[in-house]
Records
---
Amino acid sequence: MKKPLKLLSTACVLTLLMSALAACGSKSDTSASDPKASDASKTSSSSTDVPTLVWWTIGGQVPNNFDKAVAAMNEYTAEKIGVKVDIKVASWGEWDTKINTIVNTGEPFDIMFTNGSKYNQQVAMGAFADLTDLVQSETPDLYKLIPEKVWDGSKVGGKIYSVPTYKDSSLTQYWVFDHKYVEKYGIDVPNMKTLKDLDKPFHDMKAGEGKSFYPLPMTQSEGLNGFFNEYDDMALGLAPIGVKADDASRKVVSVLEQPDVMENLKMLHKWYQDGIINPDAPTKPEPDKGKPFLSAQGFPGAEVSWQVNNGVEKYDMVQNYGPIYTTTTIQGSLNAISANSKYKKEALKYLELVNTDPKLRNMLAFGEEGVDYKKVDGEKVVERTTDTWPLAAYTQGTFFNMATQKDAPKDQWEQVKKLNEQAFASSLLGFSMDITNLSTEVANTKAVWDKYRYELLTGASDPEKMVPKIVSELKAAGMDTLMKAAQEQIDAFFK
């Protein structure tokens, strides 16, 4: 506050001045602050306060109409349940680092998207609220909606710390080709089942399209999606340790040293050397549009979304693995509530609305109505009209109250439910490793893996040289201790 001017020195004027200042000071000073400031639980200054929950999620670049689209959601939810959200988006490339920083520093938030790669560790750190009782008492419709098997798969130590996304909760992996290259190079898509099967079409595409064309484009954050599908990582989020999903003996192994994994790593490295994979893959944070090929977890009709997102006229896809249920597939998409949130009940009610209200579900999945999408059949079928909406539908809520997209099968979600019903169970289904007394080993081994995985899983490094180095450093960081503890826990759990 500025010093009072000497000219305003009379008692009368000072009294009037102080009264005016007091009146101004009684109002919140939010107009001068950033509306997306780090306050996790802001409220409006109206007579009926409406909590605004900070929801951290993952997605693409935020478009110009993002705030307008979120404002429309907030107008709707404020009326329905008296809650708004401030959606904060960590990009695909920065998500790992950003979410770690938020949890490690205690930055305030209310809801956070997470998955099996981080979830158990975040629970062990005390980042998330125990929702076991609250989800049943406060949001019974949400609790009834999600099958018991899916709730069980999300539990840590027998307790619920997140709302699992009930969707293709079993995993089915697909390889997806741009149809124009399928026709041009005579690719026999239905018979593409192994990495080795992809070798010829990839080299044909490379030879025909030129030096700057990469048949298998990659980014650092993922490498080849689904590379470790056949190994159950015990919900540890550390790929180098696991159990073969169909191993009835449930033996914990060093995954990188398994012959099948090493063979596939060698194939990736050969493709990198041959220019099948883009040379900047280990450092590339975001994918380009127009992918000629992608590997993705999906379901019948998912190619319609991939076509829009990638600006490709038509994709052809083939199932190459699954469906399989593991604890990790269930934990592939979760929304947790901060242990420090002032609005745990409100956050749960918001997530319940996401999962039970088709209108809100579609706004979150598709963006601003009339700009990003238009309704074809009420809330049941929509047509996307832009490819810029950044939020990934799989991170938000169930698919089973979300519209199908125009040109997708009308019974798409029924087909997804059938995939879940047909899925075979991993030998470890229901088991989630307790890392309460192993936090140091988990943190240290994950740090080692994070140091090398980008280069290894994009084919940039020679696995015959790199894997022994990685395993040696993992052992020094506590890998053997983790493997021994995992085996003991598994043996006791399935006794």
---
Amino acid sequence: MSDAKTVAIIGAGPVGLAAAAHVLERGMSPIVLEAGSEAGHAVRQWQQVQLFSPWEYNVDKAAARLLAPTGWNSPDPSSYPTGGELLDRYLMPLATRTALREVIRTSSRVTAISRVGFDKAKTKGRQQAPFEIRYQNGKGPEVLRADAVIDTSGTWFSPNPAGGNGLAAIGERECAGHIASGMPDVRGAGRARYAGKTVAVLGAGHSAVGTLIDLVHLADEAPGTQAIWLLRGADPAKAFGGGRNDKLAARGELGSAFAALVASGKIKVETEFGVTRLSDSEGRLEIAAGSGCGGRSVIVDKLIVSTGFRPDFSFLSELRLRLDPAIEAPVALAPLIDPNEHSCGTVRPHGARELSHDEPGFYMAGMKSYGRAPTFLMMTGYEQVRSIAADLAGDKKAAARVELVLPETGVCTRGGVESTGAGSGCCGGPVKQEPTACCAADEAAKKAGASGCGCS
């Protein structure tokens, strides 16, 4: 693809805009298709949330170079932005004040991608055929042809269901009016919905933790508000994170604050609560776990499902993807991020090689590239698209080069906090033949003969 000129980029979020900046800098022509009415549409859904990483990790270098001539003032690199500040101080200036404003097509939802004249089964001459991207906007169906495609459409709008087996709980669709996903703004835009109510939060990741903390603060402001934490696993402490050992300080502080609230009794905890059924109970919501005489249930006003997200491949059915059958990430990336094996530390930086498929010129980047793994960091996405743009431009040396040093998390869990089979993680476990997951520091310590945790 060294002679690729037009690169279609799906999604105008942080990673999509960074991809466009790198493609432009490489002398190619980006076209960004954004389903929302403005750039950063998904970020707008969680703009009240403070990021775990400071500004220095949230501004892409090529994007900063593009912004510099506009008089843009770079934020304090050590301060932590909210989603709203990320939009106002970085994404919107990038999308509206630079050359990218000419290449972003908003309200343009991609519906299908294929090769011109080639279905999925046809091979001979396939690589030379341009991509055909079909999308829907206010005028109706449109078609775009491109030499390459970078899918950075994310996963925000395809959340995981409440059921613990990957399927929707029985009655989940019928009770949709009582349910929200992700991390709603319970103290702001959603205040009327949650104030004075009994609210259950299902999940054990950072979205669940942040929402539960916000509900406790809401209870201080609106008496009668009660937060219930529904945890599939048996040990709440797994959600408390690395505390002071977390190299992303804001994330460590969040876990420590949450642990204190749980200990104080301000959050009611229901462990080993695998949701199986949802049903109406006199206008409220009954959430049942288990079945038969061994089952139990809680009755609440609202349920927030914070069990993560999964990628949407519906518009990619005519492309030749190579995906891990479990994680749904590119096969070369999956071993590095598999939550069944993923442990303390961070995923090593990776790029075009790990993100490629059997469809030359097509890449997934950003959150979507991680499939069902929950450990994506924005700065990882920036490194991904830097490498991809270099690869498309024919600069294989730059594509293979690592230009990012990630902070180690210090969080030692195996299987993620949602896994009922979570163990001790990398810490104290056997030495691996090669560091194939994120815990390179711990593995190195074990090889040197250390015991316990070598992450910190």
